[in-house]
Amino acid sequence: MPVPPPFRKTLKVLGWILGSITALLVLILIGTFIANSFDEPLTPEAKALLTPPPNPYATEDNLFVAFAGFHAPPKVSMIAAGSAAIDH
Asked: Where are the alpha helices (DSSP H) in 1-88?
């Protein structure tokens, strides 16, 4: 079935738009790949930043453990409930 002339121009413009968007996305993908392909080895300072720091607080003083036990009943320690929740 032949396409009527008004729709032919619309389909042609739509094809150009979709093709341009696709070409732009492909160029961005290629540029990203090329930019990330020249990685350098990590410096000792960067490797040191990747290791987590030691926890200086005991379990009794750790506020995050207390937050984990925030739902504890009134007679139970928040730290004990938080430790139990974390262990679970």
From this structure: 5-36, 44-50, 63-68, 78-87
